[in-house]
Amino acid sequence: MRGLQRRLAEFAAARDWGQYHTPKNLAAALSVEASELLEIFQWLTPEQSAGVMADPESAHRVEDEVADVLSYLLQFCEVLGVDPLAAVAAKIERNETRFPPAP
Amino acid sequence: MRGLQRRLAEFAAARDWGQYHTPKNLAAALSVEASELLEIFQWLTPEQSAGVMADPESAHRVEDEVADVLSYLLQFCEVLGVDPLAAVAAKIERNETRFPPAP
Amino acid sequence: MRGLQRRLAEFAAARDWGQYHTPKNLAAALSVEASELLEIFQWLTPEQSAGVMADPESAHRVEDEVADVLSYLLQFCEVLGVDPLAAVAAKIERNETRFPPAP
Amino acid sequence: MRGLQRRLAEFAAARDWGQYHTPKNLAAALSVEASELLEIFQWLTPEQSAGVMADPESAHRVEDEVADVLSYLLQFCEVLGVDPLAAVAAKIERNETRFPPAP
């Protein structure tokens, strides 16, 4: 993941895109891409949504949008110095206390 | 990252949340959390948005929303068998061709 | 609707909020509020989602988020001089041709 | 607005789309369209965002996405029996108390 973050930073630098990559713009782009992922599912029943990878075209769309979401998330974390894996680990620990397991 | 994905899966299983975790619902939750991240920035100028980690309270909010976005993305990828890092690597390669570096 | 648009404009002016109401910020706020509306439904089955107004607390939440979405949409249209009703009418006309009725 | 709501309902009925129009799906579609509106602005500076209607192509895109957002909002309100204008009026009244005007 660190390697991908570096490649994304180099990719943006080589295109002089850093000027656009404010935290605010990257947060907006992340939310736009997350919506494009949701768009694939918006009219599907829960059952149809579970079978979405069986169709090669939808499978490719899903992978493509996942890539966009994760790319913007990594770039957002890079510009703000946030460690996303540490953030998830900390959240899981807090949630262990907030939501005790079912008996 | 694989370790976190496993912990998230165990966490959901222990609370019997699997029934809610259809790909459609996880995509909706991911997009809702991405919007909560954007909410932190919505009224800020570009300059203010760059300084958001200087305030401990905003910094914590940012880390918390990053954790939520990545958690739902990992759970979404888990239920559909998508490898998010491979998806980003493939996308970077496609984009190298689509967007040649500035001269 | 014109009356509400005027009241919203006066409300913002009286609080000196105009400086925050760039089209970009209002579009971000609109999308954040639309996600808050979606949040109410994210874990519900299609059937449960149809019954959401039966519970007074959810009904109130739904109405509150509808109000937020429409308020930001009206303010966005106001600052850019867009007539939202004319835009919908034009779109319906285009769609009549794009999607012929089922036989 | 009531007239548009009726036309949208007839349009959907003539295409047998009612089966897809659960409140949950319409809330998802509304949030997807609000993100498409935001997408137009995501890399713009606040100043550029204020000038977006000067370019006929962006102006058309903005009007088109406004139409989509309002169409799904009206359809959502129709299936749940929510009066969107009454909801905004009630919200403005609550907000008059919550946020007193600047002195």
From TrEMBL, chains A, B, C, D:
Stored CDD domains: NTP-PPase_RS21-C6_like (cd11537)
Domain of life, per lineage: Bacteria
Gene Ontology molecular function terms on file: nucleoside triphosphate diphosphatase activity
InterPro entries assigned to the protein according to its UniProt record, in alphabetical order: dCTP_Pyrophosphatase (IPR052555), DCTPP (IPR025984)
GO biological-process terms attached to the record: nucleoside triphosphate catabolic process
Protein name: Nucleotide pyrophosphohydrolase
UniProt lineage: Bacteria, Bacillati, Actinomycetota, Actinomycetes, Kitasatosporales
